[in-house]
Amino acid sequence: MSRLVAELPAPTDERPVRVGRRRRGRQERLAYLILLPALGTVFVIVTIPFIVVLIQSVTADDGSFLGLRNFTRALANPLFYEALRATGVYALIVLPSEIVLGLGFALLVHRTVRRAGLRATLYVLAVLPLVVPPVAIGVVARLIYAPGYGVLNIILERLGLIHQEIQWLSNPTLAMLSVASVDVWQWTPFVYLVLFAGLQTVPRESVEAAQVDGAGWWTQFRYIELFYLRPLFLLILFFRLADVLRVFDHVYILTGGGPGTTTQLLSLYLYRTEFKFFDTGQAAALAVVVLVSISILYSLITRVLPLERA
Amino acid sequence: MKRARTPVTLLRIAIALLGLGIAALLYAFPLYWLVVTSLKTKSELFAATIHLLPHNATIEPYVSVLIDRGFWVLLKNSIIVCFFTVVVTIVVGLIITYPITRLAVPVRLRVGVLNWALSLRFLPPIAVVIPYFAIVRTLQIYDQPIALIGIYSLFNLPFAIWMLKGFLTEIPLELEDAAMVDGANRWTSFLRVLLPLAAPGIMAAGIIVFTFSWSEFLFALILTATPNAQTFPVGVQGLVTQFEIIWNDMAAAGVIAMAIPLALMVIARKYVVAGLTFGVIREK
User: Fold this and answer.
1) What kind of architecture, by CATH, is found in domain B60-276?
2) Is B265 on the interface with A (CB under 8 A)?
3) Which CATH architecture has domain A79-282?
4) Please, which residues have CB within 8 angstroms of residue B114's CB and are 6 or more apart in sequence?
5) Splitting chain A (310 residues) into consecutive groups of 10 residues, what average pLDDT does each group show?
6) Under an 8 A CB cutoff, do B217 and A248 touch?
7) ipTM score over 0.95, yes or no
8) Closest Cβ–Cβ partner in A15, A193, A308 for B279
9) Do the chains contact at B105 and A28, CB–CB below 8 Å?
10) Nearest C-alpha neighbor of A139 from the set B63, B22, B28, B233
11) Helix, strand or coil for residue B282?
């Protein structure tokens, strides 16, 4: 049975391809010959939208120059801060829940499941949610939470726990929790997979040595396993943060940003500004603000990211 | 080694089983409910009691979604868009990864390309949706599959580059060298030696790009307007927001939207996590 492992890069400056200097020159030229047209094209395609959005952000619809007026309008809009707040709350709910639950399962399976076949089954089960389209999960969530036909209320009623419908999607707090639960359902398995793979890299000798010394499961986790998992937490945070900033689909389907603006995450707010209020200037200014903030965030976070680059 | 089961260990096993049981329920119930709902008859929608177990199962909702509502056209659009996205992404991905993995290039160039691809992964689509909308309208490819193919290819390129880089570095350089010593030129040795060896990896990358494009919703929502180019997720969304009351059709559409990526994933399951983590987590 193949097993899932975390491969963290060893610091190395070894060149991947070793050839004589003469051949190197020739190969390098060929490399540039292949790379430049492709990279150039992709670079232009990536960069044009940035330029367009910059232009859009400082002009009116008729093309006249507005200076920074769109930016002051965008930043003075209280809806922007509500969207920021909603995004923050969303991240603060889903990231810790996913990490705690994922870690819990990773430890549980690592300690208790020894059968390779069962581990392989759990692997497949954990992979499946990752590829389910968020739109489809949005549908599932509607079938569960929606008023009238939502099955959660029906189950709770049958169990005699409630006598009146709970308004999952129109109570501000519950709506946020409902939306977040979808994220947790889909992405906890990802955290589980990464951390479980990380646990496989912990050297058995150090664990056994600790056990001989009488370390309980907590000590074993706190002083040995956590050390090996630490870079993986960074990795999870990086990818999950990138995803949280782009969450759109399931929220759009489940609540559409409501009730009011409670679940109107940044992406939904931007969408509404452009495609519901047709305020391209303000939306473009927002997009520029988001792009700049994300670039800063990105450059901070990649410095500590344990990815193999060489 | 058999340990005596003390009450404490028994308690621990009980807690573990309980935890796993709850997790299994929370994991499986939503999917179960989606499938059960998709098999309900129309009359059951308005019945007083809702059956939690399958009851008079029918495929009527699937027929209604695909034929009566004409969603098979959207399914066709999705397949076309995803297929061409895969082709473009893999070809461009190979053009970019071949030189940095198989040729002697400065480490800086290699690292630069990979970092740049990684930074694209962090780019939120919503931030570029507004300029893309303007560009697509200017180019007059609004509501046409080609607009989606171009954008999906771009956004999937980071995954393709990192996955292909992983697969290509694993193939020994000597194999290609040997072919070239025997008189093959670089192109033939790429075509006859490298490509067949890398085929399983390329296939896996292709499947992953396919499923990601299949799931994409935001760009499809904004850049299409009619069944001419609308993809399946856009149709599903329309069912939810316009005909919400017909929730068995909604569920059937959800099942169809899920079925294809799930089926593909069973084939490429070994590579999903490697793809999502840019190669940090991989199967050994």
Assistant:
1) Orthogonal Bundle (1.10)
2) yes
3) Orthogonal Bundle (1.10)
4) A309, B100, B161, B162, B165
5) 58 51 80 89 89 90 83 92 95 96 92 85 90 93 89 90 89 95 95 92 84 82 87 88 90 89 92 89 91 87 67
6) yes
7) no
8) A308
9) yes
10) B233
11) strand
